[in-house]
UniProtKB/TrEMBL annotation, chain A:
Annotated family: Belongs to the RNase PH family.
GO biological process: one example: U1 snRNA 3'-end processing
The protein, known as: Ribosomal RNA-processing protein 42
UniProt domain Exoribonuclease phosphorolytic: residue ranges: 31-166, 197-260
Transmembrane segment boundaries: none
Alphabetized UniProt keyword annotations: Cytoplasm, Exosome
UniProt keyword Cytoplasm present: yes
Single Gene Ontology MF annotation: mRNA 3'-UTR AU-rich region binding
UniProt source species: Polypedilum vanderplanki (Sleeping chironomid midge)
Subcellular location: Cytoplasm; Nucleus, Nucleolus
UniProtKB/TrEMBL annotation, chain B:
The protein's assembly and partners: Component of the RNA exosome complex.
Pfam families: RNase_PH
Lineage per the UniProt record: Eukaryota, Metazoa, Ecdysozoa, Arthropoda, Hexapoda
Domain of life: Eukaryota
Residues in Exoribonuclease phosphorolytic domain copies: 20-153
Protein name according to UniProt: Putative exosome complex component RRP41
Origin species: Polypedilum vanderplanki
Length: 292, 254
């Protein structure tokens, strides 16, 4: 995680704040920081989104490519996640291996999306055994201010909502060669069902309490962190990050906290996405964020 | 040539006039955690530049410099994997193309930064290209200028870059888009220190590809230099309005 120097006194201050349910930015233990969302920011990607939680700034672009499915899963498409700590965010990760963190995050996303409850890979199939879509999900960390996992999962979900895959009009097998006919009209596209796409929630244990959406300073004070992948009231992944250990009962508490938070957050995110889409439809070229 | 670069009515493929720039928007101080940063949108090319430093040289770069007391200026350029139309870009480390851009940038900015003020210190320039649509280098240079100014690095002058091209009929085109780049025609990239007071305009970087008649050289050169002047105006306005906003917010806060 990003490096910030904290003195002993500062750590104690944060710890006491969390005990009293009053964090140093005025939030309670179950509050998120302000978030910002914008979809369709990159014209050269088929689906893109920018998501900020406070100063954690994430940009996601999805590009589909045609590929052959795995022999053991002939009817499923593929997804590949690639996390890139941008040169700007690298200032934060200086000498601390941004690559390791990137690998950790992309692995966490991979196991989360591997669950059949989370993502219907069959919808990416074009012609079983022969061709499928492979989605390259490229995540760019522009800035890091804590809670990267959550921000990235929201950004990815938003990008999936924005994703438009070219429509395949017909796929025929002609003597072992696949003959694909893509639609000529660029606006003729397929969209994915994003309802069940999971979101990740980091639960951070500081002192005796569990906290959501930790800032960088709080991440430094935490004794252990757990990332819970939630898709419609179901847990699809569970992963501890950055050392430390949990009491089994605490894990249960964490999961309960994650599920209840994820439920409201997921609903809000979907509503906002729909709202944002209607806004951009009615008014083209609105300038609301620095990326446009 | 597949497509005419300039129609009979004098309009280009994207509807611009021959000496018209694409839309430029820029913003300073977009990233909180660096010493200076800027975001630049030039047509559809999007670039974020950030500066960290001046700071004590890290061991790595000091070693590279063989323990000298000189100013160390590191440049890192990165294309986002989704930055180009068509296929996804592979992640390549130490690619030659990027290395070349980095060296060019280093040389361009070493000519304007007051190097003697920053002896024994290090300055890092990081550039992230989010989307490309031609004239990447000049967008990068302009964004980096803004970032340097946002970071408060002492410079002699603004440095502005612009591209120009030539049609078959010998008409100079200002600010080349990607479509015009691939349609052929020579492309000239210039980075220049604009005219200020009694100082004449001076050119810090030139790159020109393809052959063409020598008599057209002046035309295309003048066209690009005029573009640099225009861009200087835009950058200047952005910097002044940014400074104005900063002062205003400081005053209202106190």
């Amino acid at each position: 995680m990003a490096y910030n120097a904290l003195s002993e006194a500062e750590k104690v201050f944060i710890l006491h704040g969390i005990q009293d349910d009053f964090r140093n930015d005025g939030r309670s233990r179950r509050d998120f920081r302000p978030m910002e969302l914008q979809t369709n920011v990159i014209a050269s990607a088929c689906g893109s989104a920018r998501f900020c939680i406070a100063n954690s700034d994430i940009l996601v672009g999805i590009k589909p490519e045609i590929d052959a499915p795995f022999p053991d899963k002939p009817e499923e498409g593929k997804i590949e996640f690639h996390v890139d700590c941008s040169a700007n965010a690298l200032l934060d990760f200086e000498g601390r291996g941004g690559e390791e963190l990137a690998l950790e995050i992309s692995n966490c996303l991979r196991i989360t999306y591997a669950s059949p409850f989370a993502f219907d890979l069959k919808s990416l199939c074009i012609l079983p055994k022969h061709q499928c879509w492979k989605l390259y999900v490229d995540i760019l960390i522009l800035q890091c201010a804590g809670n990267l996992y959550d921000a990235i999962s929201f950004a990815v979900k938003s990008a999936f909502y924005n994703l438009r895959i070219p429509r395949v009009n017909s796929a025929l097998l002609d003597g072992g060669n696949v003959d694909l006919v893509l639609s000529d009209d660029p606006s003729d596209c397929d969209r994915l069902d994003v309802q069940s796409i999971p979101i990740l929630l980091t639960i951070c244990k500081i002192g005796e309490h569990c906290v959501i959406d930790p800032s960088i300073d709080e991440e430094i004070c935490s004794s252990s962190n757990i990332v819970v992948g939630v898709s419609r009231n179901k847990i699809v992944s569970l992963k501890t990050i950055s050392g430390g250990s949990f009491h089994p009962d605490t894990i249960e508490n964490c999961i309960d906290l994650a599920i209840s938070t994820a439920k409201t957050l997921d609903n809000t995110l979907m509503n906002i996405l729909k709202h944002e889409e209607s806004l951009t439809k009615s008014k083209k070229n609105i300038k609301c964020s620095f990326l446009n | 040539m597949a497509q005419e670069l300039l129609s009979l009515q004098g309009l280009r493929i994207d509807g611009r006039r021959q000496n018209e720039l694409r839309q430029i928007q820029c913003r300073l101080g977009v990233l909180e955690r660096c010493d200076g940063s800027a975001y630049m949108l030039h047509g559809n090319t999007k670039v974020i530049a950030s500066i960290s430093g001046p700071k004590h040289p890290t061991k790595n770069s000091a070693n590279k410099n063989r323990g000298g007391d000189e100013f160390i200026f590191n440049v890192r350029v990165k294309f986002a994997t989704f930055s180009k139309n068509g296929e996804r870009q592979k992640v390549v480390k130490n690619s030659k193309k990027l290395g070349e851009i980095e060296i060019n940038l280093k040389n361009i900015f070493k000519s304007v930064i007051l190097v003697e003020k920053y002896e024994k210190s290090q300055l890092d320039l990081n550039i992230e290209i989010l989307q490309t649509d031609g004239s990447e280098i000049c967008t990068v240079v302009n964004a980096a200028t803004l970032a340097l100014i946002d970071a408060g690095i002492c410079m002699k002058e603004y440095i502005c870059a612009c591209t120009a091209s030539l049609t078959n009929d010998g008409v100079a085109l200002l600010d080349v888009s990607h479509l015009e780049e691939i349609c052929g025609g020579p492309t000239l990239t210039i980075a220049a220190l604009p005219r200020t007071g009694d100082h004449e305009q001076s050119v810090a970087y030139v790159e020109l590809s393809q052959k063409f008649y020598l008599k057209d050289l002046n035309k295309i050169f003048d066209c690009a230099l005029m573009g640099c002047e225009k861009i200087r105006g835009i950058l200047d306005e952005a910097i002044r309005s940014n400074a104005f906003e900063l002062v205003n917010s400081e005053l209202t806060n106190n």
